[in-house]
Amino acid sequence: MNVIPLTGLAGIAHKYRLIVCDLWGVVHNGRHAFPKALICLNSLSEAGAIIHLVSNAPRPSNTIKNQLRQLGIEDRYYHELVTSGDVTRAALMGEKTRDGKISTNADLTGYSNANCLHIGPQRDRPLFEGLNCRLITGLGQNQIADADFILCTGLYDDETETADEYSHWLELAVSRDLLMVCANPDLIVIRGNDKIQCAGAVAAAYESVGGSVQYFGKPHTDVYNFCLRLWHQNIGIISPDDTLDPAQVLVVGDSLHTDIPGAHAMSFHSVLIAAGIHAEEFGGETDQLPAPNVIRQTCERFGVAPDYVMASFSW
């Protein structure tokens, strides 16, 4: 295991044409953007890289853009924004590529007109705009009886609830053999200084009692293929025969659960930001690289390792 420590991306940026960059924990913390990260995004763009910000937010990217602007992340810092919500919608709507194939690995068009039980906060309702499925809200016996499938975007109140509190209803849904579509595979995020459970925690609880889950978002390959499709569409306008080698793609993320395994699955290079979700495991220092033995032990525990590690996302 040879993880190369970096103090910034300036020395390796020339190797990469596409940067697939995580948001939460890398560019912002849910409260504000990190100034060093914005400088790095701007410098990468000036160096000629195409930047795709990729988030496991379970909402369409057009709604996330407004939130990013409020955090100080203006449109000029990136070329594309892709969310797990975008990919989930593509699967339900049966979006096709130019060769006529469904653009996601999982074709959920059979559920496009079905009764959908939404588990998650009201703020995620834009995910359903324009879809033909009938939305069922609230978690109870009648709602589960009426549902054809579940679409989970998180907890109803992620500041006071945990996935364990849903166990009774999840067992009832399993008894009806309902598919759960998880539009955010993250288990937790750091909001300010607080750890908040995400839809991935609910999905894991559902699987633990025998439920079937279809995931959209990192580390699953659909979201990365979505990025590649956008890259080819944009580059193809200028150079139709241009191709992108996997070694020319750099994934930047803070999670050994999602970002780094996703990069491995696509044969992309990756850099782990130590100050993110694993900060405590790396010693809690947000401005210093972890010791090599701590990096090795942590990666061994997760069974995956990045190509590079940085304290924070910086140029």
Topology:
Layout: E1 4-6, E2 18-22, H1 35-46, E3 50-55, H2 61-71, E4 80-83, H3 84-93, E5 115-119, E6 134-137, H4 141-146, E7 149-152, H5 167-175, E8 179-182, E9 188-191, E10 194-197, H6 199-208, E11 212-215, H7 221-238, E12 249-253, H8 259-266, E13 269-273, H9 292-302, E14 308-310
Parallel strand pairs: 1-14, 2-3, 2-12, 3-4, 5-6, 5-7, 7-8, 8-11, 12-13, 13-14
Antiparallel strand pairs: 9-10
In short:
This protein is 30% helix and 19% strand.
Number of helices: 9
**Which oligomeric form is depicted?**
single chain
CATH architecture field of the largest domain: 3-Layer(aba) Sandwich
Low-pLDDT stretches are 97-102
- Termini, distance in Å? 25 Å
- Write out the CATH superfamily name of the largest domain: HAD superfamily/HAD-like
Instruction: Using the coordinates shown, work out and report the CATH topology of the largest domain.
Output: Rossmann fold
- The CATH top-level class label of the largest domain: Alpha Beta
The structural class is alpha/beta
Approximate helicity band: 25-40%
Number of distinct beta strands: 14
**What is the alpha-carbon Rg in Å?**
19 Å
Q: How do the helices and strands follow one another from N- to C-terminus?
A: EEHEHEHEEHEHEEEHEHEHEHE
Please give the largest β-sheet.
7 strands, parallel
Beta-strand fraction estimate:
15-25%
The total number of structural domains is: 2
Mean pLDDT: 90
Strand order of the largest sheet: 1-14-13-12-2-3-4
**Mass-distribution shape:** globular
